[in-house]
Amino acid sequence: MRYWSHSEIRETFLKYFADHDHLVIGSRSLVPVDDPTLLLVNSGMAPLKPFFTGEQDAPRKRLCNIQKCVRTNDIESVGDRHHLTFFEMMGNWSIGDYFKQEAIEFAWRLISEGFGFDTSRIYATVYGEDRKLPEIPSDDESLRIWETLLPPERIIRLGAESNFWGPAGTSGPCGPCTEVFFDRGEEYGCGQPTCGPECECGRFLEIWNAGVFMQYDLRGDGMFAELPFRSVDAGAGLDRFSIILQSVDSVYETDLLKPIVEIVVSESELPADAKSVRIITDHVRCGTLLISDGVQPGNLGKEYVLRRLLRRAFLHSKLAGVSSETLLTAAATVRELLSPYYPEVKDSGELVRHTIEKEHASFETTLRRAMRELEKIVDSSNGSITGADAFRLHDTLGLPLEMTKELAHARGLTVNEKEYKEQLEEHRRRSRG
Ligand code: GLY
């Protein structure tokens, strides 16, 4: 496989679908518009939901784009080879137009002929029956289509957890999906005989959700209704494609993130693959994109997501010996890398700098107080920080649990999280009362 830069991957993806009659649309903001079910845009289809429900007319029945996305449920996994909080999803959509056959063929042809992936390493998963969703039949049609392209042992039926996608948010279009995996090789695997695309070990990297076959509308009452027409929502992570097409070990070595990592390590003793370096890189990148879309740090909702990301980056920069000036340089590098694709990122220089500086100053004050308090707690603890103490740090000093945990771990202590959650619940009950 030859080397593909991220800009070549972008161009090739969009051109392929434009050549197949898809209208190229721009990325929407990370802040959802008129969708109270969703905190932040988490997929290419999220801003397009009204097209799939028929509430709005799409400009064409075939669309494609590269959409900015944030997935905060992956925040704890950041630091491994491929989980990111911010990523770009290359998407193609059929809105009441083509369905399974064409969607799978499009993905297959682009992977094999377009990008020249080694197809002997490709696996596909399809939706098999699952007791959790008795009303959804297994997707035998996708299975049959894949059987014309791949040997049967490389087509895997999986349940709802893996192969039923959506809705984005708590209600809306969803359906069974078929995913494409790339086998990175035994050296990336756990070595278990059961290892396959469903294994978490990282050997099999999901590169493309080649089609969510949207037939269903999950309603607010938890029941499925039929959508007025059938659509396809397909999404491929630009970062995942870049890992494979640039033959690198992790997403941090791709040309999407490496320039940011280089800024971070220029001032740290830590190696480029250290968890703290990766966390700083990911969180500064995600924070910069959120600020560029008008989000400011705060204590609720998307504002809290930004605060948490920035403060976690600040904390890890302390652990890694990285100054706040370097974080600002890293943020400027994020903007440089992404400005050609997102005009709002080009124009946000002052806003990003000012927001990070202000949040950093407020974090320093919090951290100083919290550290004093934490030292007292550590002195009187025997191996573990009680849930009550962790809750007090959160409640009175604004130190999130995960930071208490990270500070505690650095001192060889654990935190009683169960008790912390009980305290939090009790506090919520009292506040409601
Ligand atoms: N919308 C499909 C996916 O995110 O996998």
What keywords describe this structure?
single chain, about 425 residues, alpha/beta, 9-stranded mixed β-sheet, two-stranded parallel ribbon, globular, binds glycine
Write up this protein.
- The protein has about 425 residues and is an alpha/beta fold.
- It contains 15 helices and eleven strands.
- Strands 1, 2, 3, 4, 5, 6, 7, 8 and 9 form a nine-stranded mixed sheet that branches.
- The protein is globular and about 65 Å long.
- The structure holds glycine.
- Glycine (GLY) binds next to strand 8 and strand 9.
What is the CATH topology of the largest domain? BirA Bifunctional Protein, domain 2
Helix content: 40-55%
Give the CA-CA distance, first to last residue. 62 Å
CATH architecture descriptor text of the largest domain: 2-Layer Sandwich
Largest sheet: 9 strands, mixed
**What is the H/E string?**
HEHEEHEHEHEEEEHHHHHHHEHHEH
Oligomer: single chain
**Rg measurement, Å:** 23 Å
Uncertain stretches: none
Query: Would you count the extended β strands for me?
Result: 11
Q: Helix segment count?
A: 15
Per CATH, the class of the largest domain reads Alpha Beta
Bound molecules: glycine
Q: Mean pLDDT, nearest integer?
A: 94
- Provide the structure class: alpha/beta
CATH superfamily of the largest domain: Bira Bifunctional Protein, Domain 2
Summarize the structure.
Helices cover 43% and strands 18% of the residues. It is an alpha/beta fold and 433 residues long. The longest helix is centred in the C-terminal third of the chain and has 32 residues, at 349-380.
